[in-house]
Amino acid sequence: MDVLSDAIGTMRVGHPSLSLEAADPSWEKEVQTFAGARFYVGTTGRIRVTAPDEAVITLQPGDAVLLPHGIAHTLVNATDSTAQFLSGAYRLERARPHPLFQDLADLVSLPARPDRYPGLQASIDLLLSELGEQMHGRDLVLPALLEVLLVHLIRACLIERAGPQATGWCVALDDEVIARSLRAVHERPADPWTVESLGAHAGLSRAAFARRFTAMVGQPPLTYLTWWRLTMAARLLQTTDVPLSTVAQRSGYGSAYAFANAFKREYGISAGRYRQQHRTDHHHERSTTNS
After folding, report:
1. pLDDT of residue 166
2. Domain HTH araC/xylS-type: where (predicted)?
3. Structure pTM?
């Protein structure tokens, strides 16, 4: 999978939620901290979104705002008539967030600009269409559209974050050299990568690649490689019954012993114990969200 898909896939838990809300002229709502990401899209009127230490954002029809870290905030109807807006949420695993998510601001304004975010605007239009009519298959379509919307929201956030002086993942994913090495790590994590081989794959010398990767991603190449391998291993332990030797092989470890040591060093418990604890949590999460 590509980097953004992997980042989302390793953090998403449960099912997304969506509602079309109506706000009376005097309406105001305090929204508490949430273990995930929230978004709002204005449909009629104006909704003001405020959060501590963040700029005030006023949603006009078609505007979106994303709170990728689920911080507490306040919603207020900014008109003297009824306003409507879409409200949605995605539960995310916060124990081990992907650094791409950590690179996002707490509150991101995404004004209605089809020329800048065509995919985002198309996703919003499809959601509103599905909500507006009781069409066959609606209960299957809405969750799928919400997953698509999350990708477009994050893509738009990365566009907003980018700029001539920007650093971090918004730049790394668009940098041809670094993006090539990240894709290689995510597509073939089990390969025996070294800094030299990743640099050669990206078309740079070892030293030049290491400097460029560290400056953009925020950590050295092999540090990120190890982090991703063990993150992927933890996901396999949670969601599959494959033997530990297979998890080790898929995660790029030559032996189950080497994998066991690396995993315990990273997570503080053995891989087997981790699977026992988190498989229970995973099944409970699925039964809860499907009930």
Report:
1. 64
2. 179-277
3. 0.86
